[in-house]
Write a structure and sequence with these properties.
This protein has 116 residues and is α+β, with helices and mostly antiparallel strands. The protein contains three helices and six strands; from the N terminus they run αβαβββαββ. The strands form two sheets. A three-stranded mixed beta sheet has the order 2-1-6, with helices on one face. α2 links the parallel β1 and β2.
């Protein structure tokens, strides 16, 4: 389960950002997670709850996940298509000359703080 390791990196980065901006409490973290990133959102949520509640800064903070659809680009016909539905083969021209445009992201989009 690599989700726990990822959560530790998220916590490290959030703590650093909080320190840099004199934030004493975080109420939520919004993540962009790509559809083919190999992250299992439910596992990430479970790991988050366990680890975040051990940090005073993050106690009770919600982890929100935006799923970024995987999109592949065809170099031959210049079409974009859904990676999960079609894999690496372009459904428009049958080409194998393709590459992933997006959908492999694992990034912190926002850090939310209380309105105090």
């Amino acid at each position: 389960m690599h989700e726990l390791g990822i959560v530790f990196y998220i916590i490290r980065d959030v703590k650093q950002a909080a320190l840099e901006h004199a934030v004493s409490k975080v109420s939520g973290v919004v993540m962009n997670i790509g559809e083919v990133s190999t992250i299992i959102p439910d596992y990430l949520q479970d790991c988050w709850r366990w680890a975040a509640d051990k940090e005073e800064l993050l106690k009770g903070a919600e982890l929100k996940i935006n799923t970024i659809p995987a999109v592949t680009y065809c170099e031959d016909c210049h079409a974009e298509f859904g990676t999960v539905a079609h894999g690496k083969i372009c459904p428009h021209c049958g080409s194998e000359h393709t590459y992933l445009l997006r959908g492999n992201e694992i990034e912190i989009k926002e850090i939310e703080v209380p309105d105090n």
